[in-house]
Design a protein that fits this description.
Length: 464
C-alpha cells in the first residue's frame, strides 16, 4: 500500500496549504500471505484441485462504480499460474480490457488483496483494484464517457490457465454490474427558467448539502460525477451550459447570470440544506466555479479540478462587466508523434502580464477553496496557476484556500476507476492532443482525491 504521512504531504519549505503527494512504490505483500515465487512451469490441468475453479467477488453481484471490488479465485491447483482478464464495453460498444498474471498459493487460493501480480500484464505488484483501474480501450485514443447513469456498466472477469499469449484454457468467469446510482437515489431532469440540468437527490426526506457540478469545454451534460456524489449524501446538480438542447451551440460569451440562476434554484429546493452551496468544477468548469465564488453570493465551498484561475476560451460576462479570455500563443503548439498536439505552453501567463484582465479576482471570494491539480497536466499548467493564486491570496491575508497536487496525473481527474486517457481531443483546437497522466499514478490520485473532495464538502457545507 502507498502511504501519505503529514510529513510527506508538504514540502520542507512549503506553505501549509500546499500538499504535493508522492507515490511510493507499492509495499510488498505481507510475508505471511505472500504468494510463493513463480515456478517456470505452468501447473497442468491434472494438477488442479478437486473443486472447480470459481471467482469470488465482494460485493457479489453489483457495486457502485467508485467503490472497491474485492476479487479472489478459489479451487485452483497448488501454485498454479493463471491470467485474469477484465472486459467492459462502454455505451458506444467499445471494448476496454485489462489483464494480470498471478500464481495461486499452496492451497490453490488467489486473493488479489494479498497476492501481487507478476510482470507481463497490464500492471504488476500488489494492486487489489488493478484489474479495474488498468482497463484500457482496444480502440486507440478512445475515451470512456458515461452518459446514461441509470444503466450500469457490465464488467466481465475471466480466469485463464497459464501465462501464455493467447490465453490458455478458460477456467472460470463471472459478470458484475458497476452502477452509478445507489438504490433510492432520485434522478430529476431540471428544465426551470433557462436552467438545463439534472438533479440527483439522496434517499430520505431531510435536506442535504447541495453541490453544483460543472464540466469543462466541449458542451453537453455530464452526470457521472453528480450521480456518484449523490450516493454519498449530497444533493448534486449536473449543470449544462452550452451545446445542450436549447442552450447556445457556439457561445461568444458566457453569462454568469445563468449560473446564478442555478445557485438560486438549488437554494430554493426543499431538499437542499443551505444557506450556501458547494461547486465542483472540472477544467473550464473549475474557472467558472471560481468566478462564481468571486462574484456571486451564497457560495460556501469550491473544488477546482485542474481549472485555470483565469477565464479561457470563452469570455465571461456578469451584468456590465466582461472578463476577456486569456490570449493564446499558437506558435507554442508542439507536434509530436502521429500529429498529436502538445499545447502545454499556449496560454499566456496571466501572472507575468501586468494589468491582465483575464485573472479571476479570487480575493473577493469568501468561499473555502480547494485546488486539485495534476503535475502532468498538458492542457493547463494547473499546478503553477493554483500555486501562484494561493500565493497572491496568502499575501492578502486570506486563509480560505488549500491545494492538493498529484504526480503523474494529467488534465483529467475523474472519480475512482475511470480509465486513464492521456491523449484526447483538445478543447480549443478540437484535434488529438496530449492531456497527460501515467496509469498507476493517475489511479492513486483518483482514489485519494475523491474522498478528500467529499470530506471538504462535508466539513464546510454541514457546518453552516
Amino acid at each position: 500500500m502507498w502511504r501519505v504521512t503529514a510529513r510527506s504531504l508538504c514540502r520542507a519549505s512549503s506553505h501549509g496549504w500546499q500538499k504535493r503527494l508522492p507515490w511510493p512504490s507499492p509495499a510488498p505483500a505481507d510475508p505471511q500471505h505472500r504468494s510463493p515465487a513463480p515456478t517456470p512451469i505452468t501447473a497442468p490441468a491434472r494438477g488442479l484441485s478437486s473443486m472447480a475453479p470459481s471467482v469470488r467477488l465482494s460485493p457479489a453481484a453489483r457495486s457502485l462504480f467508485d467503490e472497491p471490488l474485492a476479487i479472489a479465485v478459489q479451487g485452483l491447483g497448488p501454485r498454479q499460474q493463471v491470467t485474469l482478464r477484465t472486459s467492459l464495453r462502454d455505451e458506444m460498444g467499445e471494448l476496454f480490457q485489462a489483464c494480470a498474471r498471478y500464481q495461486a498459493g499452496d492451497d490453490g487460493e488467489l486473493d488479489l488483496a494479498r497476492c501481487p501480480a507478476l510482470p507481463g500484464g497490464s500492471f504488476s505488484g500488489l494492486e487489489p483494484m488493478g484489474l479495474l483501474w488498468a482497463l484500457q480501450p482496444q480502440k486507440p485514443f478512445w475515451c470512456m464517457v458515461k452518459k446514461d447513469v441509470q444503466r450500469p456498466f457490465l464488467l466481465q472477469l475471466e480466469v485463464f490457465d497459464g501465462h501464455g499469449e493467447p490465453p490458455g484454457q478458460l477456467l472460470a468467469q463471472v459478470q458484475h454490474e458497476r452502477v452509478f446510482l445507489r438504490d433510492g437515489v432520485r434522478r430529476v431532469p431540471v428544465r426551470e427558467g433557462t436552467i438545463r440540468a439534472t438533479l440527483f437527490i439522496p434517499p430520505g426526506e431531510d435536506p442535504f448539502p447541495g453541490i453544483i457540478d460543472i464540466h469543462g469545454l466541449g458542451g453537453g451534460l455530464f452526470e457521472h460525477r453528480a450521480s456518484l456524489l449523490a450516493n454519498h449524501g449530497f444533493a448534486t446538480l449536473a449543470l449544462a451550459y452550452y451545446q445542450y438542447e436549447d442552450l447556445p451551440q457556439e457561445p461568444t460569451e458566457l453569462h454568469l447570470e445563468y449560473f446564478e440562476e442555478a445557485v438560486n434554484y438549488m437554494l430554493q429546493h426543499p431538499q437542499v440544506k443551505g444557506p450556501g452551496v458547494g461547486l465542483l468544477g472540472y477544467s473550464k468548469g473549475g474557472a467558472l466555479s471560481l468566478a462564481m465564488a468571486a462574484f456571486l453570493k451564497n457560495i460556501t465551498a469550491v473544488v477546482s479540478l485542474n481549472g485555470p484561475v483565469a477565464i479561457t476560451a470563452i469570455p465571461l460576462r456578469y451584468k456590465d462587466k466582461i472578463i476577456p479570455s486569456l490570449p493564446i500563443d499558437e506558435e507554442q503548439v508542439k507536434i509530436i508523434d502521429s500529429n498529436i498536439l502538445d499545447c502545454s505552453d499556449i496560454l499566456i501567463d496571466p501572472f507575468q502580464a501586468p494589468g491582465n484582465q483575464s485573472l479571476i479576482p479570487l480575493e473577493k471570494a469568501e468561499a473555502q477553496l480547494l485546488f486539485i491539480t495534476g503535475q502532468d497536466d498538458h492542457v493547463v499548467k494547473s499546478e503553477y496557476y493554483a500555486t501562484e493564486a494561493c500565493k497572491l491570496l496568502q499575501a492578502q491575508g486570506k486563509e480560505n484556500f488549500q491545494m492538493l497536487s498529484y504526480p503523474g496525473t494529467g488534465h483529467c481527474i475523474d472519480p475512482p476507476y475511470f480509465p486513464l486517457y492521456p491523449i484526447g481531443n483538445h478543447p480549443v483546437f478540437h484535434k488529438r492532443a496530449v492531456l497527460g497522466g501515467q496509469l498507476g499514478a493517475y489511479s492513486k490520485a483518483q482514489v485519494h482525491a475523491w474522498p478528500q473532495i467529499q470530506a471538504f464538502f462535508n466539513k464546510y457545507l454541514n457546518d453552516n
